[in-house]
Amino acid sequence: CHRGSVMMGHYATGKALERAGVVSSNDMTLEAISCKIAYLMGRGDLTKDEIGDLMCVSMRGEVTHSDALPPPPFSSTFQRASRKGRHYY
User: Fold this and answer.
1) CA angle, 58 then 62 then 66, to 5°
2) Which residues, other chains included, contact 6 with Cβ-Cβ below 8 Å and sequence gap of 6+?
3) How many CB atoms lie within 10 A of CB 28?
């Protein structure tokens, strides 16, 4: 995503990516991701799993805490249906 955050494991595609070992970068910019991964890998004392765990940890404010993120928007189809008075629950 170029904007916003990623909800890994929320949809089928995200679940498949998690099973493949992809690590979420939450709402980090591409620049922050590249700098952070270079720093973590360059340390030389971290395992792959430790690096993956640290990618979600804010070291210098590069990751917005999940409590501070706005809720995800509903799909446009749901929004249009809601305006027309349809309920899907």
Assistant:
1) 60
2) 14, 24, 25, 26, 27
3) 20
Instruction: Write out the chain's pLDDT in tens, 89 residues.
Output: 555 556 666 778 778 888 888 887 878 888 999 999 999 999 999 999 999 999 888 888 888 776 666 666 655 665 666 666 655 44
Cα–Cα distance measured from residue 57 to residue 32, given in angstroms and rounded to the nearest whole number = 12
Cβ 56 vs Cβ 24: under 8 Å: yes
Which value, to the nearest 10 degrees, does the dihedral of the CA atoms of residues 60, 49, 40, 30 take?
Answer: -70
